[in-house]
Write a structure and sequence with these properties.
single chain, alpha/beta, Nucleotidyltransferase, domain 5, 5-stranded mixed beta sheet, 4 helices, EC 3.1.-.-, hydrolase, Putative pre-16S rRNA nuclease, hydrolase activity, acting on ester bonds
């Protein structure tokens, strides 16, 4: 495998209510929180959901070369309903942002780790709920970036 190519990557934590988004620096070293998008609850079947449209706009705005979507694998390593939901979301996103690639990565425990780190910093309650999705996206993207560096 070759070294990680330069360019911004976006990390995405897909939830039922919110979508957390993080971005990397162009060198692929550090992930930082970017935004939390509200999930469109009942999109028309013939329309692209507004959260996908907003995410596609972030891809363009940040000139992202790849989007990394968290795949919620359970602790036994199996893909349950949440993983199937994330895969469907990633496919829909890929259709909208092509040719920018969408990569799935194991996000086991990312929200738990993000919540713990926020609590350690004194961020709790409503303040934590407002940023936990972004923090989970940071965990997903940072773990993926580090795995890519270990491979090279």
């Amino acid at each position: 495998m070759t070294a990680l190519s330069r360019g911004v990557r976006l990390g995405v934590d897909v939830g039922q209510v919110r979508i957390g988004v993080a971005r990397s620096d162009p060198h692929g070293v550090l992930a930082t929180p970017l935004r939390t998008l509200a999930r469109e609850q009942n999109p028309r079947s013939d329309a692209v959901p507004s959260d996908i449209v907003e995410l596609a706009a972030l891809v363009v705005e940040h000139e992202a070369v790849e989007v990394v979507v968290g795949l919620p694998v359970n602790l036994a390593g199996r893909h349950g309903p949440a993983a199937e939901h994330a895969k469907a979301y990633a496919r829909q996103l890929a259709d909208v942002i092509a040719p920018v690639p969408v990569t799935l990565t194991d996000e086991r425990m990312s929200t738990v780790v993000a919540s713990r780190r926020l609590a350690e910093r004194g961020v709790r309650g409503k303040r934590q709920r407002a940023v936990v999705d972004q923090a989970a996206a940071v965990e997903i993207l940072q773990s993926w970036l580090e795995a890519q560096r270990r491979r090279t």
